[in-house]
Amino acid sequence: MYVIVYLRKNPSEDKGLSFNSVQSSLAGSGWSIAPLHPGAEDEDLARQFFVEVTDAQQGQMVQDQLSKLDEVEAVYTKPPEGPPS
């Protein structure tokens, strides 16, 4: 299960600093953030990240933590993938 994170567009701020701030926020809880589209040159794709979690409860905890950060524009838990029912 994944939590998808969109960082804010801020032309006056270094993207690396935003990422590092979010990463530092998660490090104390044992989670890490990674690019959703590694190496993407498109600005919109480059600000999309994910956090892997084991269940919906952890997903909600990550969402709650990241939604408080100014650097984060949006955050949501992606439902687990599976065959259609």
UniProtKB/TrEMBL annotation:
<protein>
    <submittedName>
        <fullName>Uncharacterized protein</fullName>
    </submittedName>
</protein>
